[in-house]
Amino acid sequence: MTTPETAPTTPTAPHEKYFAPLPVPDAGRLPHLQQLGDLRTPYATGPDIDALFAQALTEVNTWHAERSDYYGSVWRAHGEPELRTAADAARLPLTHANFFKTHVVKSIPDEDIAAHFTSSGTTGQKSQMFFDSWSIGSVMRMAAFVLDHYGFVTPGQPANYLLYSYQPADGLKLGTAFTDDFLCDMAPVNERAYALRAVGDEHVFDPFGCVETLVRYAEQDLPVRLLGFPSFLWFTLERMRALGIPPLKLRADSFVYLGGGWKGHAGRQIGKTELYDRIEEQLGIPHERVRDSYGAVEHGVTYAECARHRLHAPVWSRIFSRNVATLDPLPYGEQGYLHCVSPFMTSVPVHSVLMGDLVSVHPGSACGCGLETDWFEIHGRAGTSTNRSCAVAAAELMKGAA
């Protein structure tokens, strides 16, 4: 009789750590935040969910008011309004995202900082954002829960990756680079390439390398995942066409996940439908496998497109549109600045942040995808240089409100 061989130990798959328990910094002070963060259904709705959100938001608001001199003074100056319902989130004091470009504000001691990232703006001062273990863990866990909801977490299927973001380099602290590398844990990496290559102390877009990579990937029987800035993907498609490269046929289960906007190329920005059509035409990836997303280093909640390409708010956040002149909350359908509220961040008081993007907010029922949470449409991004820039659009709205 032979002795059976011991089965080799299977290492933990990279994605599993994002679904593991994640404790809040203080279980006694933040019990409802723990419950909210542990929700695995990212688009759940109902009275119980709203009550839990309000309780978690109250806990985090108190947390920051007690630990941040800045936020404590702001909170007291606003009369400390009660947060009894999820809708009361609109009553929180607003902090503009640009504030964090010139101010360092923390609610934790330096020894508790687990990660430090900056925004990815192409010019000017960048926001500095600090994370404790709970906050950075929540950023990744929320994204993993959302992608899993849409069926894009496939631990049993290796993929080839082309990241339209920054190749890792010493001292690189961009939040977008961290996010795209994290997303590679959602399916095992067979091969990974970067569109923005590190050359000395800068990053350089390599369009020929991107084309070569896609042609090589098309010859392999593996799904392909394209992640990152849409502008550089578009430039790759344009380069393919200019070189006379015929359409590629990537595997049908390939996946495109875009984010970060067009950055320094807003003047060349094209419509979403045109971009998705070209992806399907030249790469063979259908619209339903192409998703845009919205996020910011100042607000790490994942807003990923649904099947109808609408950006729904997940269970961990509430969204509002604010009048560009008065900052008052606006009804559904009216354009204003995006106001995001989420209690996940315990390291910096960004639980109520005003973004520079112009949006209109709509009820979930107006989408038709089956999700019931509110969604928003972006009408202009801050810092763009298109004919109808965000600043111009805001000025027009202010004129109309006068």
UniProtKB/TrEMBL annotation:
Instruction: Fetch the Pfam families from UniProt.
Output: LuxE
Name of the protein described by the UniProt record: Acyl-protein synthetase
Among InterPro entries, the record links this protein to: ANL_N_sf, LuxE
Listed Gene3D superfamilies: N-terminal domain of ligase-like
Domain named Acyl-protein synthetase LuxE: which ranges?
214-395
Please give the organism: Streptomyces luteireticuli
